[in-house]
Design brief:
This protein is mainly beta. The chain has one domain. Helices cover 13% and strands 45% of the residues. It is built from 1 helix and 4 strands, in the order ββαββ. Strands 2-1-3-4 form a 4-stranded antiparallel beta sheet, with helices on one face. The mean pLDDT is 91.
Length: 75
């Protein structure tokens, strides 16, 4: 197992499930997946999306990036 994996953590707006996660082995792959969610439509589903490095040796997490979404609105 690698020493570090990259996790994208999705905090769901509806609250039935607090969050979902995607795990990636390479930082470049995790950034590519993270960027796909940087769009206005994500605010309808998520309150926050985080990109985190998880160090398995120390069992610690380090934040890399996050997106916070305001409550969606309609016209």
């Amino acid at each position: 197992m690698p020493g570090i994996t990259y996790i994208i953590r999705f905090h769901l707006r509806d609250g039935r499930i607090p969050c979902e996660e995607q795990e990636h082995m390479a930082l470049a792959d995790s950034w590519e997946a993270f960027r796909l969610f940087a769009e206005p439509d994500s605010a309808e589903i998520y309150t926050r999306i985080e990109l985190i490095a998880h160090d398995w040796e120390d069992d610690t997490e380090s934040p890399i990036a996050s997106l916070d979404f305001a409550e969606p609105y309609s016209f």
